[in-house]
């Protein structure tokens, strides 16, 4: 309807111009075919542009709307949807409005140009015979082409895809897709964005010092110097031993997606190293019968019954106690072979030896000694650096670095200046022999995310090491035996710890135990560097420093350094620019098509008649053609008649006006 209205408006302004009474070319000399020899000069090009000014203006509007659309999309591409300031009007609504303006302002001048194109089509080209006119039915095809897709498709069929008229028809056809294409331009992508959750609420537990122990009047091998382990640490040890898996500390992450910088903390390390005990066969007889003696490199003896049934003994020992078979009550000391670093104050070192069942060799009439396996394990305080993150509610923590090298400071009131008690089973007293008051570590600042240029200490009180080590030495002593007796399996063991070591695997138990103790240290110990004992001094690289200066609280400075960041998934605008190709192409081709129509009309002197009823005011139909349609009242009857008539748009020989003439069999050559 908009195209028809525009064409009719053009008719109002041009039909009289084309009328012989007002046209400057009406009285101009005409050629033998009735056309004016000065058609081109009869209408100034500036006047022609004035006639098409509204159509040209609409082309400019479509270009401006397209530029506006591109600007709007560019400004919001990659921006968060929550930042849209349009209120109830969404960005999609703005795009839809601009797309409507683009199509409406684009289709009107194109439709007008197609309507004008039918007059160019009916004008026989110069040098051709008049009989080569166009089918009268083409007039209707052009009319329908200016109104929709069906007519435009027919226009392409009759004019050929290479004709300029087909360009206008293609614009009409593809303009229908402007709306759907522009709706596909704007998409949504989801990104992880840091939320406004305060960083202080995302601090992970960490510790820089541990000094947990309980004063006790008991002085024994395992309760050295009257210091015993704290109940919460003992509970953590038991939990680590009897749990199939010890989990990392749960990080508080309200959004379900959080990251933290590298977190450094005091913790507990544990490790096992395999070794092959050189066990030799020996036999002796005592009052109880035959016994098999296995000799280790150190010469210690492990006794087992002389049986050919399934027999496995798991012997556990510690660095200060002994491994033994309780049924015989024989103690044996071990010497660490793998964990012997003098700079590490080990909490405990123990060895496990697995001895398979003995086998009787009939050929030699003697017992066969199957190969045995052994593991040496240790636990010690260490500094650890963690990488922690939570993704979609699933937490992952990785230990990126570990520092275990210690230095020690001594309380100067002890004259021995650092003589460590080698035999904790003997109560020698604090005042008689000196011992370290603190063990501390100074790890690499960059790896452990420590303040650059300022030494940060991780420290452990000597009393805590002795208290925890005493209990661990007692725990990891015993055995687990599997013996077939009287057709049934009996599994004697010295403690539930030995049973856990047998079923869970020694290395697994040690790893679980180390993590459980680490979790307890991180959640119970303060984030201060060292204790505040005024008399305590330390030596760092040969320089004595008062350790009390390093004991200030770090809560303020650590809040920013170790604070985590919570992330939420938010929608962002994403512009898919490829979908702009069609609208841009149509907007650029539309003015080209309109301008070409204007120039072609000016060059050929074709009148600007438009369409509609007002066409009859500026262009007549030859009487012969009218007579053929006399009495025809149905379109399906008129259409075949029109298809068989060849016509041409020419100047009338009578009055110089424009006339549609029947040129069937006309042998004239158009000049």
Q: How many DSSP E strands? A: 29
Helix content: 25-40%
Strand percentage:
15-25%
Tally of DSSP helical segments:
17
Task: Give the N-terminus to C-terminus distance in angstroms.
Answer: 38 Å
Cα-atom Rg, whole angstroms?
Answer: 50 Å
Structural class: alpha+beta
Major beta sheet, specifics? 10 strands, antiparallel
Number of domains: 2
Low-confidence sequence ranges? 1-41, 220-224, 282-333, 410-435, 484-490, 528-555
What's the mean pLDDT score?
72
Shape: rod-shaped
Pfam family, one: DUF3176
InterPro entries: DUF3176 (IPR021514)
Region (Disordered): 18-40
Keywords: Membrane, Transmembrane, Transmembrane helix
Describe the protein:
With 671 residues, the chain is an alpha+beta fold. The chain folds into two domains: 2-190 and 573-662, no CATH class; 204-563, no CATH class. The protein is 34% helix and 25% strand. It has 17 helices and 29 strands. Strands 2, 6, 7, 11, 14, 17, 18, 22, 23 and 26 form a ten-stranded antiparallel sheet that branches. A four-stranded mixed sheet has the order 1-28-29-27. A four-stranded mixed sheet has the order 3-21-20-19. The protein is rod-shaped, with a radius of gyration of 50 Å. The two termini are 38 Å apart. 37% of the residues are buried.
Features:
4-stranded mixed sheet; disordered N terminus; rod-shaped; 10-stranded antiparallel sheet; 671 residues; alpha+beta
